[in-house]
Amino acid sequence: QVQLVESGGGLVQPGGSLNLSCTASGFIFSSYTMNWYRQFPGKERELAAWISPLGRHMDYADSVKGRFTISRDNSKNTVYLQMNSLKSEDTAVYYCNRGANWGRGTQVTVSS
Known about the structure:
This protein is mostly beta strands. Helices cover 0% and strands 52% of the residues. It has no helices and eleven strands. Strands 2, 4, 5, 6, 9, 10 and 11 form a seven-stranded mixed beta sheet that branches. Strands 1-3-8-7 form a four-stranded antiparallel beta sheet, with no helix packed on it. It is globular, with a radius of gyration of 13 Å. The termini are far apart.
């Protein structure tokens, strides 16, 4: 079955960086657009970034544009989210997504 496993979250100070990873299994990874969503406390999940199957196209939410970079390594069935210049308002649970499939999420906390 489809599995998406996120890692790389944690506690970081404002201005710091984190690199999230999502390793996928159970489907042909290189055939699918992959997404990173985030969910703030008490709010619905929002799309942070997406990347096309071969990594040629990507886009970002305005709130993360210029600070986050999505990438993928199809040889490793892994999608990444490099997050730089983190702000307290980036604190959320970050989820890897493909269609109706979701990972369990990884907590990112930005705090001094």
